[in-house]
Design a protein that fits this description.
Elements lengths: L2 E3 L18 H11 L8 E2 L6 H4 L5 H9 L4 H7 L5 H24 L1 E4 L20 H11 L6 E5 L6 H6 L6 E8 L12 E5 L5 H19 L3 E5 L17 H18 L3 E4 L8 H19 L2
Parallel strand pairs: 1-2, 1-3, 3-8, 4-5, 4-7, 5-6, 7-8
Helix pairs in contact: 1-10, 5-6, 8-9, 9-10
């Protein structure tokens, strides 16, 4: 059975006037249900990740400051959100959702978090609307509990997964791959195990060519026994921040390439949604929903 993490706490920051398009985290499950793609029993509600779990990939002092709401003003500005209890709780739900999503992926082959992909949060800092890094925490959870030995993180958000790279620098058990806009945020990049930087304006043909060639090499060399996929849809030509020219069909084919590769090799994959900033919310939601449709078709749920 396909299992999907979703919790209404994901949209609480909207009630405080934040201008980040978090409404998609509510609309994605609604659209999945409306189209009959999934049923209510496919969803599970995450709990608040505890302090020790948050520290699996983050500095204890930094996590304590988050829990106590005592981050200094400079760090709050770096994150981009006014710090609040509901915002910290939201991140804790996301972390728990991705951990349990990964555990469901071990059981069923694939699982989703309707939010997550908070890849700008590093070991001891938050950045770019990310307080903590859900897939990094889940990665260390799987490793610490003997559920995986070699993990590949595939980050196809238009922005580099700098926080993920920072957390796993020189970690032999985790291979970080980020394919992102060369001139996009963050402007000071971290070093992933493999970075593929793309020029502004890249279209479907060149984007998919780069992805295909790198995926073949990644799976052959890394030989992972678990994959985390950050499936940001800010690569779309309609995206306000992306600067690329990838079509909806190109984005859909991107998802097919990643998910089908995992399916063919029998490697469990957890998917978090990542970014999406198109002018029309429908374009964002449709692109994310397409990722679910692709997975369901491949896994024949």
């Amino acid at each position: 059975m396909l299992k999907i993490a979703h919790h209404t706490a994901y949209i609480h920051p909207l009630r405080e006037g934040h201008r980040f398009p978090m409404i998609k985290y509510e609309l994605i499950p609604e659209q999945l249900l409306y189209e009959g793609i999934v049923q209510p029993e496919n969803f599970f509600a995450p709990q608040l990740a505890d302090f020790e779990t948050c520290c699996l990939a983050h500095d204890k002092d930094y996590v304590q400051q988050l829990f106590d709401l005592t981050l200094d003003a400079k760090m709050v500005r770096r994150i981009g959100f006014p710090l609040s209890q509901s915002l910290v709780d939201r991140e804790r739900y996301i972390l728990d959702g991705t951990i349990h999503s990964a555990l469901y992926a071990l059981k069923y082959g694939i699982s989703f978090n309707t939010a997550g992909g908070t890849h700008h949060a590093g070991f001891d800092y938050g950045e770019g609307f990310c307080l903590m890094n859900d897939q990094a925490v889940a990665t260390n959870y799987l490793l610490a509990n003997g559920h995986a030995k070699k993990i590949l993180i595939i980050d196809l958000d238009v922005h580099q997964g700098n926080g993920t790279a920072h957390i796993f620098l020189d970690n032999p058990n985790v291979f970080t791959f980020s394919m992102h806009g060369a001139k996009n945020f963050p402007f000071i990049k971290e070093k992933s195990d493999k970075d593929v930087e793309m020029p502004d304006g890249i279209s479907d043909e060149e984007y998919l060519r780069l992805l295909i060639s790198n995926l073949e090499e990644l799976f052959a060399v890394v030989k992972p026994d678990f994959v985390f996929y950050q499936a940001g849809v800010d690569i779309l030509s309609s995206d306000k921040l992306g600067k690329l020219k990838v079509s909806k069909e190109g984005c859909k084919h991107r998802d097919f390439l990643v998910i089908n590769k995992c399916f063919e090799l029998g490697i469990p994959v957890q998917i978090s949604m990542g970014g999406g900033y198109s002018i029309h919310i429908k374009d964002i939601v449709d692109a994310h929903v397409s990722t679910y449709k692709t997975a369901i078709d491949i896994f024949d749920f």
